[in-house]
Amino acid sequence: MPTPALLLIAAVTLAQDPSFSLSRFLPERRDAYQQYERTLNAIPDPAQLRAHHELLADEPHVAGTEGDHRTIADLETYFRNLGLHVETQWLKVYLSRPVSAEVSIINPNAPPTILGTTEPPLDEDPYSRDPRLTIAWNAYSGSGDVTAEVIYANRGTKEDFDTLKKAGIDCTGKIILARYGGNFRGYKAKFAEESGAAALIIYTDPGDAGYAKGPMYPQGGWSTSSQVQCGSIMTLDRAGDPLTPFVAATEDLPDDQRLSPDEVGLPKIPVQPMGWEAVQQIMQRMNGRAVADTEGCDKWQGGLPLPYRIEGGPALKVRVNVQQERGFQRTANVVATLKGAKFPDEKVIIGCHHDAWAFGACDPLCGTILVLESARSFVELAKAGSPPDRSILFACWGAEEFGIIGSTEWVEAHSDDLTKNAIAYINLDMATMGDKFWAAAAPSLKSLIIDAAKDVPHCRTPADAPPTSVYAEWLTRSGTTDKPAPEPTIGDLGGGSDHVAFYCHAGVPSMAIGSGGARGTSYHSNYDTLNWYHAVVGHNYLPAQMNTRMVNTIASRLANADVLPLDPLRYVIDLRTHCASTREATLRAGLIFSLDVTKYFNDFDASGAAFRSHLEIWLKTFQDAGYVQPMLNEYARMGEKMMMAKDGLPSRPWFKNRYISPNPLSGYEEWILPEFRAAIEAQDQQQLDKAIEALQLALTKFGITMSYYRARVFPRPQTESSTRP
After folding, report:
1. Residues 133/60, Cβ–Cβ less than 8 Å
2. Quick one: pLDDT band at residue 400, thresholds 50, 70, 90?
3. CA 309 to chain CA centroid, nearest Å
4. Which residue from 268, 293, 449, 581 could staple onto 142, CB 3.0 to 4.6 Å apart?
5. Residue 199 pLDDT > 50, yes or no?
6. CA distance 562 to 22
7. Residue 449: how many CA atoms within 13 Å on its side-chain side?
């Protein structure tokens, strides 16, 4: 008899007209496949997910430490016990370690006021008393001892430092105060160093993450006054190990094939993260001009109960003494493979990193546990005689927190195979932080995500009510009260996590999915514990079960469909919008946008319509003409292929995706059409013309390829003579 969970899944599964992704299965296979999917999604278990969480979040495990090595061993044991083939890729990577940190206010004729650089233990959270926890630190900070005046730089963005310069503020030799938010913390350090600053303090402001948002931990979930966000500040023009661009930093790589640390451009100034309680003692002593009285700075006021000021004045001196060690450390990626029965070389990859700044219950482990539970789901069906058609890889990456290192080294080691055989990458970093589903993805994967959301029940469905799908709840949040959304909002992939190497370097269609909504944050702090997670996110693990079902559904359709459920024509839909906004941005910058994309899009629309109208016929006939199915799958993968630049982006050759890259000025957010964005930022018409030429060439190639398919396959697929190339 089916379980209640199985019946619930069945209730929201499409039963009649097939969705986009289910239409990629042969008609005679669809009923059996849907039964397979229902059985698959009856397996994820909240109790198992909690057990995974307790296994991985039981100790601090910063990359390269003994705790990290024990985590790696736990992952190996788990996957091997499932019966999977496990590849452990041991890496020798260049990391940093904290030695000491001291920040103090210099008092005339009195001892200095020592400010806190640690997060004190909380009686309510026993994990916070673990003796292996360290001082607060920013990885790759320069070492140094600086005593200087203070300048407040808001969020430390490029625009903020430009504003200071326009206001006549000289940062040379000063200590910069900058609050978190607005950009990746590494760019705060980069721009501070470029401004001539001698040191940087980055702090958590209560207006962004503290009492201004709600009750603080442990009464609520928001940051305490001494809570600190740690994190790497490495900002290079690529991801991965800083000394091995384009080459995997494996243990057997000779040192003479690694760059010297001196030629990499790591931060030189000391950088220290702090909580607002300590920083308030500095800011309340500042007596320079107020932000409200400084042109361009009127929105720089934060949440502390005092007037924010730009300058501390000559009487206020602060000492920042940060000492760190840099050197080689060992860590590893753990990749477990469930071999496909029909197309074993083709692979769907599900991944999340395993390293953390402390315990990592939220970042990353509430996503890592989905990788483990999805593996258990697929293995259980494989052992019952139903393996996937394509291989599925379950990956746990090392040293993500230092600069997306582990996944990048794995991609660089397997780049040729990934370019040829990788179907898609699913990233699950910090993936269960509430019950509000979200997604960011390559255009070619958006239709598949929406289909899956329609077929998975939302975890908030009451037991005595008709099931609500993930899609229905997600769609409701995507619209407004007066204007319903046509479909749920799916974001674009920026930087900051393990999808970067797959999508931006190797051109593998990628997505990041999960759910949010938690009232608070323990991000990169010592309080990112199971105690915080259970108190703030919850302890029933129903959202994690929901997200595992989403992962299973997406991965299963990618692994089992006869024609890959990738939609290259979604690139056309998105490029229409992005080309229009890019044209407007170039005009605002005083540049000329000379590309007419209308004719390309009209041709693409016709090809897309032809593909959809003929798909049912092809599905019925390709079994008798085996060359047709590979051609259809190559067609499905065209979106990413057309946007890849063989030699990489100008000035950023490691990034090869012309459609998207991380923003080189902020790190986290995306740059759509990055060659255009770089030209606009530089206000360089010649650079823009080259970007237009490159995009025009890509669109032309896309159009020619699509025309080939229309001529060779699309018109009369009923007979072999009309379809053979």
Report:
1. yes
2. very high
3. 35
4. 268
5. yes
6. 10
7. 28
Alpha carbons 639 and 566: distance in angstroms, whole number:
9
What pLDDT, on the 0 to 100 scale, is given for residue 10?
A: 37
- pLDDT one-digit tens code per residue, 436-446: 999 999 999 99
CB 555 within 8 A of CB 351: no
CA atoms of 235 and 428, how far apart (whole Å):
23
Question: Do 506 and 639 touch, CB atoms closer than 8 A?
Answer: no
Helices (H) and strands (E) in the chain, counts: 23, 17
Sequence-distant (≥ 6) Cβ neighbours of residue 146 within 8 angstroms: 175, 198, 199, 269, 270, 319, 320, 321
Taking the C-alpha atoms of residue 494 and residue 109, their distance in angstroms, rounded to an integer, is 51
Q: For residue 617, is pLDDT > 70?
A: no
Summarize pLDDT for 81-140 with one digit per residue, the tens: 999 999 999 999 999 999 999 999 999 889 999 999 999 999 999 999 999 999 999 999
- H-type helices in 516-566, by residue range? 530-536, 542-560
Secondary structure E strands in 643-714: 660-662, 670-672
* Helix or strand holding residue 329 (H, E): strand 317-338
DSSP string covering 507-529: ---EEEEEEE--SB--TTSTT-S
Instruction: Give pTM, 2 decimals.
Output: 0.94
Whether residue 438 contacts residue 492, with contact meaning beta carbons closer than 8 Å, is answered with: no
Give the mean pLDDT of 534-561.
98
- Residue 401 CB: number of other CB atoms within 10 A? 23
Q: Which two tokens stand for residue 629?
A: 């199915």
pLDDT for the residue 285: 97
The C-alpha atoms of residue 266 and residue 255 are separated, in whole angstroms, by 18
* DSSP at 309: B
Three-class SS state of 88: strand
| Pair type for strands 113-115 and 85-106 | antiparallel
* Residue listed under structure tokens 């769609």: 475
pLDDT value at 679 more than 50: yes
Share of the chain above pLDDT 90, in %: 78
pLDDT value of position 463: 66
Which residues, listed in sequence order, are joined to residue 721 by a DSSP beta bridge? none
Q: Any idea which residue has 């890259």 for tokens? A: 661
Q: What is the pLDDT of residue 689?
A: 92
356 CB-near residues (< 8 Å, 6+ apart) = 60, 61, 62, 363, 364, 365, 401, 528
pLDDT at 204 exceeding the cut of 50 = yes
**Whole-angstrom distance, CA of residue 560 vs CA of residue 32:** 12
* Banded model confidence at residue 665, pLDDT cuts 50, 70, 90: confident
Picking from 133, 114, 157, 534, the residue whose alpha carbon sits closest to that of residue 358 is: 133
- CA gap 223, 209 in Å, rounded: 6
Closest CA to 55 of 353, 362, 365: 365
Cβ within 8 Å of residue 213, ≥6 positions away: 222, 519, 520
The tens digit of pLDDT for each residue in 483-528 reads 777 889 999 998 999 999 999 999 999 999 999 999 999 999 999 9
Task: Report the residue count for the chain.
Answer: 725
Count Cα atoms within 13 angstroms, Cβ side, for 173.
Answer: 5
Is pLDDT larger for residue 4 or for residue 473? 473
Confidence of residue 33 (pLDDT cuts 50, 70, 90): very high
User: What are the tokens at 636?
Assistant: 């499905």
**How many other C-beta atoms are found inside a 10 Å radius of the C-beta of residue 167?**
13
Cis peptide bond prior to 218, omega within 30° of 0? yes
| Cis preceding linkage at 364, omega within 30 | yes
Q: Are 365 and 56 in contact (CB under 8 A)?
A: yes
Nearest to 9 by CA among 561, 549, 449, 559: 549
For the chain, the distance separating the N- and C-terminal CA atoms, rounded to the nearest angstrom, is 49
